[in-house]
């Protein structure tokens, strides 16, 4: 990228996380509403809080690897810490309008 992106880290991180697609649903994890928080510490650790659509999701390892790959692309990220939580529980209400439309949920 040739121009400097001065947006806050969280915005840039959410943008690249839209590249992580849930292969079962074909929708990215941001628009599915799976990302609850993302922050970068002063020492370069990206702390990501997320949930899964179901506990015991068979895609956990795939999503973990894809998330790390996207976030480690930032020069300022030294390490990625992914914290999977189930409270608050995920529901279709957390999905973006676009994701709902794409899945035919009105």
UniProtKB/TrEMBL annotation:
InterPro entries, per database record: Fe-S_Maturation_MIP18, FSCA_dom_sf, MIP18-like
Gene3D superfamilies with a match to the protein in the record: Fe-S cluster assembly (FSCA)
Ranges for domain MIP18 family-like:
10-84
Going by the entry's taxonomy, the superkingdom of the source organism is recorded as: Bacteria
Q: What is this protein called?
A: MIP18 family-like domain-containing protein
State the organism's lineage.
Bacteria, Bacillati, Bacillota, Bacilli, Lactobacillales
